[in-house]
Amino acid sequence: MALLDVCGISDWVKEDGFNAERASVDKVNHFNFAAQTPELAVPVGVDPAEFLRPLVDSEEGVDGVKINLEHGTTTLAFKFQHGVMVAVDSRASAGSYVSTQMFKKVIEINPFLLGTMSGSAADCVYWERVLAKECRIYKLRNKERISVSAASKLLANMVVNYRGMGLSMGTMICGWDKKGPGLYYVDDNGLRLCGNMFSTGSGNTYAYGVMDSGYRYDLSVPEAYDLAQRAIFHATHRDAYSGGTVNMYHMRETGWIKVSQEDVGDLYHRFFNEKK
Amino acid sequence: MSYDRAITVFSPDGHLFQVDYAQEAVKKGSTAVGVRGKNVVVLGVEKKIVAKLQEDRTVRKICSLDDNVFMAFAGLTADARIIVNRARVECQSHRLTVEDPATVEYITRYISSIKQRYTQSNGRRPFGISSLIVGFDFDGTPHLYQTDPSGTYHAWKANAIGRSAKTVREFLEKNYKEDMESDTDTIKLAIRALLEVVQSGGKNIELAIMKRDESMKMLAQEEIEEYVTAIETEKQKKT
């Protein structure tokens, strides 16, 4: 710039010239969808995964202190002819301690978009709330709701910046947009899959067993409700880290509805009596 | 008059003189016309008369930004090149992040925000181009937008920029019909509008059309001549 030349400063200030990326004209950018501006600052000089390992993985922890990250869940979602079914349990555990039986593992991003949570509760809650913020901003800027594929891609792009740093998150983004019902699985590695049926969490194998044996694309609505509920129930029955209540949502063309919230104890008696 | 040096400074009566001067530069550029029909969008530009030794094909004033969007400009060609490059990258970036093609409005908003940033920054001058951006969104709606050096944009049914834009726009206002069903009518309107200001007829017109779900097509010289002949015949019939 002219003034710099006059003061003789440009000799010893390495000016990058007009490097478009770093010029101040280009810094404010509403079009990068949070992909390039990391929402969470990582401290310099610390490798988060290495820092966490002795606290979490070893027997005695550090100075006798051990951090039990909250894991343990069963969540599932599947597409069928009348939309998408989403069912989750509600237990949050820290090691063998049950923190709560009433944890909300489904985040309602907007009337046409839901996100489930499994893995570390803190990571899921934080990142899905950031996703909800981005979805709201998208709607304000573009005057139409974000598509399911875009929302899941945003989430995947956000967490891939922190790959290898110890995030633990397995989530399903479900919704209904212009292209119809949408279901995507996104995890902390940045993996993003489109599919018709997913189940995540420590109890997912049990849920898959029940879901796979009863699933057809042309299920009726009551049949789908029953299948989703049964799958979560059976997972909570066998998996120590799942339990509480079964929260069930149905994503339809007109938006999602919360179908039911039933305690697994009541479900046990209902299914037990059926068998008689 | 001393308020036109650093463009970040307002004049006492609220003008950004550099932006106004940029608009003057646009008025010196060759005319461009855009028409939005029901199933087709059309952009036409006045071809500059090239020197004898110059290759005709290197002067391209209609550029495609993506499979579903293309634009024409009036003003400084070099500035337009920068904008077109950035817009093309943004279209692909949008496809990558959102998994859908950018809507015409989105890419217009992006181009306008670049132009606006250059009106509010030290040491830089505004872009000296106005552009007409046309295309179809992926749900099939056609759009025509016009941007100007200040960074504002508006949607139009038909518009013209560059030299004699006012004359052409008046012609369009008189002759634009709301529901032009046929593609031929839309194309003929764009050509007739350009013929108002272009010297020596069809030879100096460059035309691009895009039908829904098809890619942009630059009309060959012979096709343009066909339309021009048809227009002349119609004119003869009327008089």
UniProtKB/TrEMBL annotation, chain A:
InterPro entries: Ntn_hydrolases_N (IPR029055), Pept_T1A_subB (IPR000243), Proteasome_bsu_CS (IPR016050), Proteasome_sua/b (IPR001353), Proteasome_suB-type (IPR023333). Its main location: cytoplasm. GO terms for cellular component: cytoplasm; nucleoplasm; proteasome core complex. One of its GO terms (molecular function) is threonine-type endopeptidase activity. Keywords: Cytoplasm, Differentiation, Hydrolase, Immunity, Nucleus, Protease, Proteasome, Threonine protease, Zymogen. It is found in: Cytoplasm; Nucleus. It catalyses: Cleavage of peptide bonds with very broad specificity. Component of the proteasome complex. It comes from the Eukaryota. Belongs to the peptidase T1B family. This is Proteasome subunit beta. The active site is at 73 (nucleophile). One of its GO terms (biological process) is immune system process.
UniProtKB/TrEMBL annotation, chain B:
PANTHER family: PROTEASOME SUBUNIT ALPHA/BETA (PTHR11599). InterPro entries: Ntn_hydrolases_N, Proteasome_alpha, Proteasome_alpha-type, Proteasome_asu_N, Proteasome_sua/b. GO terms for cellular component: cytosol; nucleus; proteasome core complex, alpha-subunit complex. SUPFAM superfamilies: N-terminal nucleophile aminohydrolases (Ntn hydrolases). It comes from the Eukaryota. Belongs to the peptidase T1A family. Its main location: cytoplasm. The 26S proteasome consists of a 20S proteasome core and two 19S regulatory subunits. It is found in: Cytoplasm; Nucleus. GO terms for biological process: ubiquitin-dependent protein catabolic process. This is Proteasome subunit alpha type. Residues 3-25 form the Proteasome alpha-type subunits domain. Keywords: Cytoplasm, Nucleus, Proteasome.
